[in-house]
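Render this sequence as a predicted structure.
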Amino acid sequence: MLGNVVIVGGGTSGWMTASYLRAAFGDRISVTLVESKRIKSIGVGEATFSTVRHFFNYLGLPEHVWMPKCNATYKLGIRFENWRRKGHYFYHPFERLRVVDGLPLTDWWLNSRSGDRFDQDVFLMAAICDAEKSPRYLDGTLFEQDFKEGGNTAERDTLTEQDTQFPYAYQFDASLLADFLSGYATERGAKHIEDDVVEVVQDERGWISGVRTKEHGLIEGDLFIDCTGFRGLLINQTLEEPFNSFQDTLPNNRAVALRVPVDMEKRGLRPCTTATASDAGWIWTIPLFGRIGTGYVYSDEYATPEEAEATLRAKVGPDAEGLEANHIRMRIGRTRNAWVNNCVAIGLSSGFVEPLESTGIFFIQQGIEELVKHFPDANWDPGLRRSYNRIVGNTIDGVREFLVLHYKAAAREDNAYWRDAKTRVMPDGLAERIELWKAKPPTEATIFPHFHGFESYSYLAMLLGLGGIELKAPPALALQDGSRAEKEFQLLSDQSAELLKRLPSQYEYLAQMH
């Protein structure tokens, strides 16, 4: 078994990796993280998937330990504003659809109901988000839902063991999380070196044997993990593994971000991320405990950085005055193989498919989990590399397809950006799937066939909310008795109303935690 792991790069990806490896392997391997004081992490990836709970469970970290340290809040889904038309919104929640007589409630809704707010009729989460409620009662118990909570920190589960849909994810300050995990990892034996890497040393095979630093000299290792972000110092620059761009299908390649101090008690804490469509992309709004994280994701084909910053500041209003804007160039796509020789890329160096749907930290988590499951010994069996690269590549490709669908299916067509989104090239297979969905709404059997974090309910939520691709109920429903479905609609409405009476506000719950 290999004994010496060197992580190059800190930030969220570096410290998540170091923490997880220490939790998984303990003292049986050595973990050293090298990061430069001069290079700032991107630090805007503040929203997550519901599956991130597996990461904290694996580390044995309950919410009350880490959430207050990272100004974390709950995220029950994403609120999409202005994607169908200005003034319209809908939710994509973390909530599987109820099934009646073998068919999801969305099929029955298409057959018997109409209106723009399908999400209120088929999900509980829409009303909870609108009312800014917490998913937990003040005593810490989770609100009633048809799933088992799990989350016992003694049971270290991973993404592949998830058999129920947990109802929320988290939003947090990514820089604070990196600091918190730095303490976690170093307390458990990880070595932390703050220094600049001036040379990556390779042996006669082309494998990495060490990284030479400015002040600490040569740091040798067996396995090297590239967490250097979009630079891809090890995987792309040194090993020259090609990067496959997704710009032909996803043109957003820039972002400008602001950190906005806000009195959250007065403002309120909606338990979701908001994605507001704009003229050259979309604007995220992420409420944390004490501030708002917001940013404009856009394509520089349709707006300049100055125009994008002006648009973002106008959206924020007077609170943006005097705040420094962070402009970011994004590399959209994925490294062809995330694992080459004895180097594994995790985080932005592996791949990134723009911030929509908050998949950045999900990619980090999956990359780490799969590395542990594929961890090599001194024989370096190439089958492990091939399996790892296939799984990670399929996940990123699947997310790409799902995000392309957002733009293709958005009914908005009021300017060149949104009109072009309807005619832009699509990934292989998506056009055929869309034609099938027009006749029969998406199921697990008809969406992207490999694991990518999204289930068929997510496709249904987006297609019904975006409104640009018409879905029809399966013809068979016209021949079936819909009375049981109507009872389920009523039950859902009653449960929603009862929860709004009993649940505390998110601010109230988190203030108590703090």
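Summary. The first helix runs from residue 11 to 25. The mean pLDDT is 93.
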